[in-house]
Design a protein that fits this description.
19 helices; OB fold (Dihydrolipoamide Acetyltransferase, E2P); 3 domains; inorganic pyrophosphatase (n-terminal core); alpha/beta; 5-stranded parallel sheet; 570 residues; Diaminopimelate Epimerase, Chain A, domain 1
């Protein structure tokens, strides 16, 4: 693994001092707040005292009034309604939430999840054909549709209305839908722009309940699924997303839905959920359905209310996830071997690898794994339906979507975000695309971005780390993009009486102190190579998260170590 660069974040010292006087908490905590744009007593109070009152009126979203009226019209006229979503966690939870809500008040409702392998992402021709053949009068797309101009036009020609609920960036042309719910529209003045697809679905059913005086509190039974979608889709944990995450975690931990409880049981998890658990324990099992087979299975789980059936469905997803892990591991090793054996990769600023037999459902995961070893924008490609297709992942400093834009002449189709994208091309264009993509990366990315960087929030002394400090720090959760778990640095640390050691051959267990402090324990996963620095007898610096360790009912403060290096090397 490459040596990482440590960078201490900058913040306005006057703002930190002023906030510290107002809050009377440790200056390091005030520094973390200011770094996140929280620089007054009122904004700090809003951050730490989040409630349902912070949620915005759903009717502030452009098109919401038209959407709820059209759905009510469809119900009144007895039309069949199809809820159409993507096959990932955000898409399947979105479909489950909106489908379950309307199914409780109306019978003529179905859902549709496209097959990743035969249909691909978003609205498909097969999906429109299905709607036509089944006499659907209204399609509600969720987590997709904003760029499906031609297919939504086709639905319109066949007499089918569409409501698009999407959070992806619109293209130059909008689809001819009855209503488009997407805060990223240029003329939508909804106060918060970063909702995920499920968040927009939640807003839709909230608006419907408000408009027609239905059980508004009943809408909140879906908040644990909304939080799962927010976590899995890696959207910013700020503003309304943070509020929905907090409310959703509260629901997940105190009144979990039957499906979420089933997923928790089969994963043998016996603690309260955090956002991290939703990302790393729940999301992979849900995503595995779409990656290995069909995302429809995930929706079937999320709408199930019978505990026994829910557990059976959860076990099916567990099996899919085990298969996914096997493919993930095998393909990653194959790709790493390809990179090591081909000298071409040593001189590139990007990684593009292709094998026709690789499983399409895991290439995005493999791309992320490769970046851990070779820190470059990475594309992993396979063959599907006679074409080359795959997923791309990026590094800080390179906007992947903009980069692919500059390679558009070689691509049949592409879409995505700053850090993740999908693409399809003909095999005869692969070499030219690979060369062009590398040239684009070279032209867009400065040299320093190819060194992985750890951004540090604040410097701490060990003597300042206590239960009171941790109690306030815990209130910064839930964590995610734009509100990541704070990283601290402590300098001139020393091993205590040679007690630091390697455990299970690869992890670093630390017992350390600073002059004038008590000892503190830490764990550095897969960091056994740092033991010589720790045992050298010389002072060293640590960067870490602070967490609570609960071992056999005994709680203590522990450092989750991120990196170690000799002092005075920063």
């Amino acid at each position: 693994m490459a040596q990482k660069k440590w960078v201490l974040k900058s913040a306005d010292e006057a703002e930190i001092s002023k906030l510290q006087q107002a809050l009377t908490i440790h200056p390091a905590l005030c520094r973390v707040l200011v770094e996140r744009g929280i620089n007054t007593f009122d904004t700090a109070r809003a951050f730490f005292r989040t409630s349902a009152k912070d949620l915005h009126d759903p009717f502030l979203m452009k098109g919401m009034d038209i959407a709820v009226q059209r759905i009510k019209q469809g119900i009144d006229q007895g039309q069949k309604i199809l809820i159409y979503g993507d096959y990932d966690v955000d898409g399947t939870t979105s479909v489950a939430v909106v489908y379950s809500y309307f199914k409780a008040i109306y019978d003529k409702i179905e859902f549709y999840i496209p097959n990743r392998f035969s249909e691909g992402y978003g609205v498909s021709k097969q999906g429109i054909d299905y709607a036509t053949e089944n006499n659907i009068g209204l399609i509600i797309t969720i987590d997709c549709g904003i760029k499906s101009v031609e297919l939504i036009q086709l639905a319109k020609q066949k007499g089918i209305d569409t409501i698009v609920c999407d959070h992806h960036f619109p293209g130059n042309e909008l689809p001819p839908a009855i209503s488009i719910l997407n805060p990223k529209q240029a003329d939508c003045y909804y106060p918060y722009k970063e909702l995920c697809g499920c968040g927009i679905g939640y807003k839709l059913i909230s608006a419907f309940s408000m408009q027609y005086q239905l059980n508004v509190s009943g809408v909140n039974q879906y908040l644990d699924l909304v939080a799962t979608a927010i976590a899995a889709d890696i959207v910013p944990i700020t503003g309304e997303n943070r509020t929905l995450s907090i409310l959703g975690l509260e629901k997940a931990n105190h009144q979990p839905s039957v499906p979420l409880q089933a997923l928790k049981q089969i994963s043998a998890m016996d603690r309260e959920f955090t956002i991290t658990d939703l990302v790393f324990i729940i999301a992979p099992r849900v995503n595995a359905a779409g990656r290995m087979d069909n995302g429809r299975k995930a929706v079937e789980l999320f709408i199930e209310q019978d505990e026994k059936k829910a557990k059976e469905l959860a076990l099916i997803l567990q099996e899919d996830n085990n298969d996914r892990k096997d493919f993930d591991r095998t393909i990653t090793l194959e790709a790493l071997d390809m990179i090591a054996e081909n000298e071409y990769h040593a001189d590139t600023r990007s990684t593009v690898v292709y094998q026709p037999h690789w499983h399409k459902g895991v290439v995005g995961i493999v791309a992320s794994r490769l970046i851990e070893h070779h820190y470059k924008p990475t594309i992993v490609l396979t063959e599907s339906n006679g074409k080359i297709t795959g997923s791309a992942r990026s590094i800080k400093g390179f906007n992947l979507f903009e980069g692919l834009n500059q390679c558009a002449q070689y691509l049949e189709n592409y879409g995505g975000h700053y850090f993740a994208a999908g693409l399809t091309l003909q095999e005869e264009n692969l070499t030219a695309f690979t060369t062009q993509f590398d040239n684009v990366v070279r032209s867009m990315v400065a040299e320093e971005y190819f060194i992985p960087t750890i951004e540090i929030d604040a410097e701490l002394l060990f003597k300042d780390i206590n239960d009171g400090f941790l109690n306030i720090l815990n209130q910064f959760a839930p964590h995610g993009p734009e509100n990541m778990k704070p990283i601290f640095i402590t300098k001139h640390v020393q091993d205590y009486q040679g007690l630091s050691s390697i455990v299970k051959e690869k992890h670093l267990r630390l017992v350390v102190y600073q002059t004038g402090s008590k000892t503190i324990n830490g764990i550095g996963f897969n960091m056994s190579d740092k033991i010589n620095i720790v045992r050298s007898g010389k002072p060293f610096d640590l960067i870490y998260h602070i967490e609570e360790n609960n071992w056999q009912g005994k709680k203590s403060i522990q450092l989750k170590v991120i990196d170690v290096r000799e002092s005075n090397t920063m």
